[in-house]
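Board notes (copied after class):
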Amino acid sequence: MQVCIIGAGAIGGFIGTRLAAAGQARVSALARGATLQALRTHGWRLEQGGALVQAPATASDDAAALGPQDLVVIAVKGPALEAVAQGIAPLLGPHTLVMPAMNGVPWWFGQGVAALGDAPLRSVDPTGAIGRAIATERVVGCVVHASTATTAPGLVQHRMGQGLIVGAAQGGLQPRVQAVAELLQHAGFDVTHSADVGRDVWYKLWGNLTMNPVSALTGATADRVLADPLVRAFNSAAMREAAAIGALLGCPIAQSPEDRHAITAKLGAFKTSMLQDVEAGRAIELDAIVGVVHELGQRLGVPTPHIDALFGLTRLFARVHGLYPEASA
């Protein structure tokens, strides 16, 4: 199988190195700048369990040079996705699958839900360009349960977790998605092939919806967020609003917010991905994690006062610090 990784950073490099080292796929990367140079010089590199895993890499900044693939894994930050979609065509053959391994709610989420209509989710696909470039029939939804980081360009450090939930965006169990699941499983991932990956996407989003922006705003690790009773209660209220939205989308949440807090508390004093982005001066993925839930609430007529407040405050904080675009004129 020919696999191309777009975005060979923390998650893309993790998946790419594991696949390349396993030897069942020809793995290339569409990259640029220092990451491209590092891949050309050193190949794929992953630090895990005290050892360095390396494998040869084919890397280019020209999609046409790589050609059509069997699987394209997109692991970029949300704000970069539209530009990726506009240049992805040379990688797509008649049967190419596209697996976005990204945070938050993807552009394809909610398609087919009558209450949402046909309009794209403006928070994550403002012009509809992503949906036009990548047909839903191609999409393998992916939920990542792993913590990784890039310690240098092209060098990934695995911290914990190796779970991947994959499934056809259109739902159901498809043989071609099962082939992807088996490829990833052979590379050492704990893989679940889901018949309703949209529901899995929503469940992870429900857990990240508050912790990410609250930590970004306050600079607090997860344990401190949960230890403050007022903040914890605010988070719970926002999660109940999101659960009401999910119920209308066919993505009910069986847990209570307190159940979820107890799971998160077991992870200890960790920094969320959004807090790490703030500390590194990187643009935050606010739209795919919070803004889209605000949008869904509006479109479905579900009141979301706590989510709205969280979105507004975090958006203003990020704009002041140059981490989120200013409002267009």
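Comment from the instructor: The mean pLDDT is 95. The first strand starts at residue 2 and ends at 6.
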